Structure to design on (198 residues):
């Protein structure tokens, strides 16, 4: 019930949250792998974080740059009973990933990473996220096809072409990364990319 309210509220206000089919894929993987330590890039109002914590026994660190959304997510996670299992960091994700990589505590630490943050920065985050992911851990990225523009760049408006080009480079790097196996591009809704670290 809590999740449904958060979802409806976000949709009404135009706050971007994970789409229906992508949500089902995310839940399938979380239930299958039952991660102990999750890293999420892009908290928004906490909808996907609550869903993941509801489907596993682990904890989550989730990063959101918007302070108002981070505060709302903190309240939502607390109301859902997950305050002790969730840490919300309000900061730039690139800065936080760099700090985590520099901190030996977090290298090879997370067994599940859900990437749903600023699309133009996906490629810049990839190497750091792979370093933070432990062997056998899952990396799942959302919105990688960006409204279909990535598959057909000629249809992208001038405003979105740069993001689409960057996401195409991200997909190429993701699918060919030497430390990732089982890579898969899931062509549903806005597209997802899945991989497991060697």
């Amino acid at each position: 019930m809590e999740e449904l309210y958060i979802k409806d509220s976000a949709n009404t206000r135009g706050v971007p949250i994970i789409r229906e089919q992508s949500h089902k894929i995310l839940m399938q993987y979380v239930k299958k792998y039952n991660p102990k330590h999750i890293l999420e890039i892009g908290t928004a109002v906490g909808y996907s974080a609550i869903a993941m914590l509801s489907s596993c026994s682990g904890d989550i660190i989730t990063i959101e740059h918007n302070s108002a959304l981070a505060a709302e997510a903190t309240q939502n996670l607390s109301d859902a009973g997950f305050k002790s299992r969730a840490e919300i960091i309000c900061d730039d994700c690139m800065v936080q990933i760099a700090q985590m990589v520099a901190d030996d505590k977090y290298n090879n630490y997370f067994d599940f990473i859900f990437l749903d943050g600023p699309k133009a920065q996906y490629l810049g985050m990839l190497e750091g996220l792979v370093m933070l992911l432990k062997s056998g851990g899952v990396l799942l990225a959302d919105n990688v096809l960006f409204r279909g523009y990535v598959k057909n760049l000629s249809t992208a408006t001038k405003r979105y072409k740069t993001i689409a080009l960057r996401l195409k480079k991200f997909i190429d790097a993701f699918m060919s990364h030497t430390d990732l196996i089982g890579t898969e591009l899931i062509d549903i809704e806005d597209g997802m990319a899945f991989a497991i670290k060697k």
